[in-house]
Amino acid sequence: MKIFHYTEHKPFPAKTLGIEDASGLSIRFLITQGDGAPNFAMMHLELEPGGCTPNHQHGWEEEIFVKTGAGKIKSGDQTTAICPGDVIYIAPDEAHQFVNTGEENLELLCVIPNNPG
Amino acid sequence: MKIFHYTEHKPFPAKTLGIEDASGLSIRFLITQGDGAPNFAMMHLELEPGGCTPNHQHGWEEEIFVKTGAGKIKSGDQTTAICPGDVIYIAPDEAHQFVNTGEENLELLCVIPNNPG
Hints:
Two copies of one chain form a homodimer. Helix content of chain A is 0%, strand content 53%. By secondary structure, the first copy, chain A, is mainly beta. Among the domains of chain A are: 14-56, no CATH class; 57-94, no CATH class. The first copy, chain A, is globular and about 40 Å long. Chains A and B meet through strand 1, strand 7, strand 8 and strand 10 of A and strand 1, strand 7, strand 8 and strand 10 of B.
């Protein structure tokens, strides 16, 4: 068993992870295969005010819980406002982009399968 | 894509789910295989003040984020206090029990593999 506060895991700016076309995005890797987790990984995403993730898609699903902040998610022609407590299921191959529209960080918990690529 | 507030999914008292030896526990199923999620499920657990989950173990992992409240997790002879922002990785076959030691609900986000039994 591992127990720690999420702030004990440092945030990596997106560019240091090879993620292009993001603005003000950093990612904390909370639980990964390196911890022995056999199936899926939990991450903590932080977007600064005005920041955004890339508009992207991939062949695996994401399960997301909005922790703090205010923002929107774009998917194709659809844009939806999101707030703390919102749950988002992104199916494989669905385009998506998160944008922070608020004045504090937009923080998301995100779970993806291991070795999704 | 599915987007909704977690409160839109009603909490099921543990006893209605066949979970015995729990006190003040209810579970909201946020994302499941029924939504098309191919690999893992996200749940929202609420423990009333003084409430607890069963002391139990199972052959699959859990990845947990403490959302609100104050409590502790017991695992064998070890007891650890938990607070909002804590991340907990429970490996397969590790015994565990959550207890709410605070005065408000203890709320946990919990992710488990599909069809774990």
